[in-house]
# Entry
Amino acid sequence: MCVSTVMLYTFMIAASTGSIAETAKRLRYSKSTVLYHIREVEKACGSELVERDVRKFTLTRSGQKALEISEQLLQKADELKSLPAADSRATSTSRLRDANVGPSKNLRQPRRTVSA
# Structure
């Protein structure tokens, strides 16, 4: 099961507001999208993270732990985004240069000649 950073962020906002409607309003999502994101995070964790009530919800113990982990993961994701672009290009270029993939440069298609 794969949970996106968007789903984790939605879960974090919902936890801070305690309201599906408020979360949907803040993120400009539908209520069903917010609920879907929360359910997907719950599926990935394998446990119920929120106790739902008519108007609001509260986090379970597992939900509190999941919130802490979500905050850490999103912080690390931000760190990944802030890596210098020049470093990533140099690394990927050198990896590609060192990789032994594809046809050799010495192999060429035979030339076709057209006789008149």
